[in-house]
Amino acid sequence: MLTSNRIVSLLMLGLVSGSVYASEIQSEALNKWFEIINRSLKAVIFFDILPCDPEMPFIVAWLIIAGIFLTFRMGFVNLRMMPHSLAIISGRYRTAEDQGDVSSFQALTAAISATVGLGNIAGVAIAISLGGPGATLWMILAGFVGMTTKFTEATLAQMYREFRTDGRVMGGAMEYLSKGFAELGMK
To answer: What does the pLDDT look like over 115-165, one tens digit per residue?
Structure first.
């Protein structure tokens, strides 16, 4: 009886170790496949557009140009509408007849919690420690330009949101990108 238990245990150990070995091979193959895709995407998105020493990846330049364009196109909405936004957050325009379960302040805090992550918190400390006090100026300018980009994103999400029959609201980038491109004739 003891011998048969040992044989069964050894067989089970062999099966388990074989499946672990097979999953390691599959995992390595999957990692190699994603590495090829990642390398290709990196070559396109993060290629250096400046041939000189300070590197400027394409994606950074794209975000800066888009932010500056939107800031001017929206008429400096981040400065112009600041008093109005503070009035909305304070609840000055809220009435008992308003629809919705979320107050303006709750919507703001939810949006901030989705936007500000560990990178924004730790990134500030790392930028100042590596770049010195001058990094603060660039972070302020990036935040100024980024405000208009975020405003545009939130506005598009509100414009293209969809109310489902069961009461759910569907919105966000997946909605405004697909519907916005469809309106422009691009599918």
So the answer is: 777 777 788 888 889 988 899 998 899 889 988 998 898 888 888 888 888
Distance CA 20, CA 32 (A): 18
Do 103 and 91 form a contact (C-beta atoms < 8 A)?
Answer: yes
166 and 102 belong to one structural domain:
yes
Query: Residue 141: CB partners within 8 Å, gap ≥ 6?
Result: none
Sign, Cα dihedral of 176, 182, 184, 187? positive
| Residue 23 domain-assigned (yes or no) | yes
Contact 47, 58 (CB under 8 A): yes
Whether 51 is in a domain gets the answer no
Pseudo-torsion of CA 8, 14, 16, 20, nearest 10°? 180
Q: Are both 85 and 19 inside the same structural domain?
A: no
| Whether the model pTM is above 0.70 | no
118 by DSSP, 3-state: which? helix
Plot region of 57 (φ>0 → left; ψ -120 to 50 → alpha; else → beta): beta
